[in-house]
Every structure is written in C-alpha cells, then in structure tokens.
C-alpha cells in the first residue's frame, strides 16, 4: 500500500510518468471540474468540435453535394475503421450505425438462424434495454426467451441459443472472460452478442483474439463521441457474409443508388447500416475518435486500472463498501461504491467540483476515463469524498456554498 | 396561360404577394445558388445552426447534466410536437426517433397483430428501402409478403393486411388520396403505414382528418433538419395504446431511469422511442423546425404548387415530358421531367448555379421548397434549362466555364 498515491506528491509523480498525460489538452473541460462521469457521457474532445464545425460548413456550402464532396457517404465506415483497433478487429468488421438498442436487435435477430437452438438468453442484471430488446425480439420471431439468473449466462450457453451479454456490467464494472465464453459457445453452437458499451475505449478488448464474433457498443461514453452519438456493430469477417440484417435500409445495400427493389447486402459489417445516419452527430464522433489515434487499448486499460486502484484503496481506507472487483483484470473503467446516503453525497461532491453519478438505491459510480483524467484529479476527488463523509456535510446545505476541491 | 409567370416581372409580382417570402432570410444559402434539391437535403435554417451551437455549448459546459439542464431528455418529444401541426395531428401523437427505415419497421411490426390478416403489402415502385424493410419484416415475423404492381396498393387493402405506402411518390411526386385509402382500409381491417418523407413540410397533409393512424417521415428534406436528421413517427392516440414497439429501447420506457427488467411503454407515440437519440442532430432539427412556427401546411402547399405549376408550364413550352401530375392537388413538392440527356443537363444546370437532381435512367427532379424559394428563383432556373437545351450546351465543356444564371 505504500506505493499507492495517497498523497498529492505521489499522485503527481504518477502523472509525470503517465504516457497518456498529454491527451488531457485535447479535451475541452470546464475549469475546476473533476469529471468522473465519462462512463455516462464523455466530454468533448477539441477534434470532435472541429469536425462538427466542418460538417456544418459543408452542409451550408455544398449542401446535398457534401454526400460526395465531404465524404459523408462513407463516414459511417470510416468511423467504424477508427473504432476497430480499439477492440482488436479489422477495419471492415466495424460499422457505425443506429443506437446500441437497435444494433443488439439486429445482431441477435441475424444470429438466431445460425444458432443451434432458437432461444434468446439474457441475464436478469443485464442492462435493462438489452433485456427489453431480447425479450421483444424473441416474441417477434417466435423464438424462446429465457431470462437467466445474474451470472447465469456462461452456464446457459450449453443450451445453444443466442446470448446477449455485456462485456462490462454497467453497475459493478465486472468484466466477462470473453475467451472462456466464446470457447463454451463454440462447444454448443451458441452465439454471443457482446454489448461493449462500458468496455470500448477503456478496456483492452481483443475481440478477434478472444474468438468474439458479434458485438455492439456505445460511442458516447469512453469514446467521447457526443450525446447520443451513433453506436457501432462488429461482425467477424467469417460470419458476416452469412448474416442478414433484419433492418435492411438502403445504406446497407451494396448499391444504394441503384434503387433496385431487391436487397443485396454490402460486404462485411457494413450490411448492418440501415437508414441515413445522423451526419452531424456522426462527424462529431469521428472527430472524437481522432483522439484515440495511436493510443492502444492496452495503454487505456492500464491507466484506467491504476485510477481504479486508487479509488478502491482510498475507499478501503474510508471503510466503504466496494461493489466492483478488486482484481483490476476483472474490472472495467468505473468503480462503484455502495453508500447509503449516495444521492446527497453525489450532490455534495458536485458542489466541490467533482462529478460522479448515482444509481438507485445506493450505488455511486466513479468513471475513470484514462484520456483526460490524471491521478491527481482522482486523488483530489477522493479527498473531497473523505471530507464530505467525515464531516457529514452532505446534509448541510451551507456546505454547498463554501466547498471547493483543492 | 397568360397569368403564368413566364416573364421576370410576372415572377417578381408573384413574389411580392407571397406570404412566405419573408422566410427566405431565415436560411443560409450560398450566394447565387438556386437550390432545387430541398426534396433530398434541405439547406440550413439559421435557427438550426443556432440550436446546434447551443447544444455543443451545453455538452461542453454542463456535460452529462445537460440531459436535464438543457432538456435533452425530452427533446425528441418537443421536436415531435413541432412537427405535429404540419401533419394535422396532436402533439403527443408524434415522436422524433431513429431513421425512416427503422421507423417503418417498428410501425409495420406493431400493426401486424392488429390487422385482419398477417400479410405485408408494398407496391413495386415504392421507395426501395420501404420494400426492403417490408419484405424482411415479413420474413422475420413469419407473415406473408406481397409485392404489388405499381398503383396496386389501394386495391390490395381488401386483403386486410398492413400496407406501407408513400403519401408522395419519390419519383413522380404523385400524391395518394389518404382519406380514400383509409376508408378502404377501415372496411377490410387493413392498416396503412404512411411514409411521409416527400410530403411533410411541403404538402397540406391532414392525417387526423383523413383517418390516417400510423406514419413515419423524413426530417432532412423539406423540414431542413440537417443531413441524416432523425426521422419521426406518428401514431394516432386511439391506436397507440394498443401497439408494442418491436424495438423497445430504454427511451421508450415509461420510467427509463428506474432500470426495471420489465418493459412498460410510455404513453402515446413516445413508446416508439428506442435508444439514446443523437442529440446534436436532434437539436439541429428542432432548431430548423422553428422556421415553420406559425406557417400552415396549407400555405406551404399552396406555394409549392404555384412553383410546380411554373415548372410545368415552362416544361410544356419547351416540349419536355412531364412525369409529375399536372393537377396540383395530386402533386407533391417536386416536379420530375423525363430528359434523355438528364445527367449532363443537371451538370450544366449546376454550372449555372441551379442545383437539381437526377435519377437514372432519365429523371430530372426539381424540388420546390416553399420556404426559401421565390417564383423568380424558379423562373430563372427554367430560363437556364431552356438555354441549355436550346443551345445543346450540356455537351460543350466550355459552357460550364462561362454560364451563369441571370
């Protein structure tokens, strides 16, 4: 524990050897704000704002011609190619399109005919949308639906169905062992659709090496793509050609401007494109992804783990209940603490300039985005938390006026 | 024909009594550009750019708090409420969400259990995406699929299925008689999902008065919401409560932040919201819709028809083949001409500052957006077309250098 950066000097020393420290200046963050909610909505990278301004200017100047002149027509593919190295897959295996909800539906419906059995599996503590989509998709297609006990996904793969599974649990940050899951799925003819929403941009996901074949993920969390930025789909090359999108919009057509009545899907993951993508949001995302150029997923994960270790060691010293795995290799990019007075504590933190989030009934989550947070930032946030808890000041309205994180 | 504005003076006189003439200054259009492609991608209204700048600033300043502080959480509903009066329905009957493709799927799948027969109907000259979506939806759900002859939709309603039908044909601009269709559908227990993509913002669609119950539509054409701006869904109040979205994402949940495993849909059309909407694109759209405040659909249609009449009368005088209905009450917001050398002619028009579009093999479309086009604009475009055709200059490269519309 001696090496943990409990002191300000120790944190600063870690920042000095942090290979990602230089990335902070690529973001636009309010003065004095320690932002620990990057797992919910990432802040704007400067390059995101720049690309948005360009897209606006293109719309104004070149109007409909911008589909070609500004490259809007293949922007979804280019953004997919920017994401690919962060999840360990090839560029043509990723497309940016629609929302995570819609993409999970597309992948599960496309996978169903290839699974050993027509059954949709989802765990009961899975992110709620994933459960809603899974259950309704089963109803629509006449497949069987099974809601499993928390943690029951692995064991249920022997049923040979389609499992929708988060790589990182949104609440606890627990990480699934993708390679073990995929090996088990392969044994039984099951297919897994991974939800990478809390993994991409913060975890060293190596999908191809782990045998993962299908995944969807969010781009407005750790990828900082902007509020509601379109999501992505990964479909492994060897599987993609056998998949039919249940939402075959014209942007997924091999010849979208031929206007033929019959559908001919594009090659690779691009077949999962559907309607016209929201270009202003998509251009912003593509700009945000420039921030990740030449950054390895491994470097992101290493730093996020170090920041998470810092949170946990301080939580331990405060005697708090840590809900997230202590083994950093089993933990995603956030750390969740169980704090009975969580809601007012998060408000008190905000009054100190520290933004964290609260999930009822008692979960406080600290998102540890590795590109823009320093060890000193996180140490300061924990100082503020300790001060609030020791002083009981979360229930003192006057605290909110004077508190400021140091 | 004497009253048609063939002359510059006559066109200017019409502009002087045009009640929408003042709207032109609310748009940002390049100098010297006569933009007749608003049926494909509308130009940016100033208010759209303004709202986009604000959303960007909100993201930067308030970060995740903007979901509440900037009202992002109900922006999709507010944008829906802005669209509602343009299609003659109530505010809670419209929600902005996803793309037209995805929305047609949602509505057709939701309507299927309520139709007299499990059959999906679509005409063979329907916009191709609508055909792709219809066919695949039938395959997914095990419903029967019937591709009808062009114009066969009305007659097929007696089969009691779900018909996906454009209110305005994307190629010819022919308008469907919505009230006749709905009366026939009611007689046979059929349900119609209207595609309003080429109707909204340019036609006096009165959905409620016409008995229409379900519709989806595009917002980046005549509504000028920006490239790929999210689409909308209309579901009539009396039907909405009986419909289950096949894509029940968390934004369509009655309590999205309760994170319950079971789905409880929101009231009204809002149940068709799905994943997190692309806020930057959505804010831009909402800004664009401000341009339509206090503009009646009837005023839009009246002017678009006058502009269309002008195009047709000039086309007649040039001996061109008019593909669109001559009866303005049967015609949408664009006029299509069949011109054998259409592609180079459109290029030659562009060299004169007149933007029109071309659809293979021989269709030239002139979009007559009533908010930013004047009669003089359209007259000038027709002058340019006449000059190009008379001189045969579309095949003379040197023309492109010297031509400028007057």
**Overall pLDDT metric of chain A:** 95
CATH architectural name of the largest domain in chain A: 3-Layer(aba) Sandwich
CATH superfamily of the largest domain in chain A: Type I PLP-dependent aspartate aminotransferase-like (Major domain)
Largest interface: A-B, 76 and 77 residues
**Class per helix and strand makeup of chain A:** alpha/beta
Which blocks of ≥5 consecutive residues of chain A have pLDDT under 50? none
Helix content of chain A: 25-40%
Number of helices of chain A: 15
End-to-end distance of chain A: 23 Å
Q: Going across the major beta sheet of chain A, what is the strand order?
A: 2-8-7-6-5-3-4
CATH class of the largest domain in chain A: Alpha Beta
* Main sheet specs of chain A: 7 strands, mixed
Overall geometry of chain A comes to globular
CATH topology of the largest domain in chain A: Aspartate Aminotransferase, domain 2
Name the beta content range of chain A.
5-15%
- Write down the domain tally of chain A: 2
Task: Write the H/E string of chain A, N to C.
Answer: HEHHHEHEHEHEHEHEEHHHEEHEEEHH
Tell me the Rg of chain A in angstroms: 22 Å
What's the number of extended β-strand segments of chain A? 13
Oligomer: homodimer
Structural features, described:
Two copies of one chain form a homodimer. Chain A has 406 residues and is of the alpha/beta class. The first copy, chain A, folds into two domains: 8-45 and 296-402, Aspartate Aminotransferase, domain 1, CATH 3.90.1150; 71-292, Aspartate Aminotransferase, domain 2. Chain A has 15 helices and 13 strands. The first copy, chain A, has helices at residues 8-16, 46-62, 66-69, 75-83, 100-111, 128-141, 153-156, 178-188, 207-210, 237-240, 279-289, 297-317, 342-351, 375-391, 397-402; strands at residues 34-35, 94-96, 119-123, 144-148, 162-166, 191-195, 214-217, 232-235, 321-322, 334-338, 354-355, 357-359, 363-367. The first copy, chain A, has a seven-stranded mixed β-sheet, sandwiched between helices. Chain A has a four-stranded antiparallel β-sheet with strand order 9-10-13-12, with helices on one face. Chain A has a two-stranded parallel sheet with strand order 1-11. In chain A, strand 12 and strand 13 (363-367) form a beta hairpin. The longest helix of chain A has 21 residues, at 297-317. The first copy, chain A, is globular and about 70 Å long. Chain A starts with 7 loop residues before the first helix and ends with a helix. At the A-B interface, helix 2, helix 5, helix 6 and helix 11 of A face helix 2, helix 5, helix 6 and helix 11 of B.
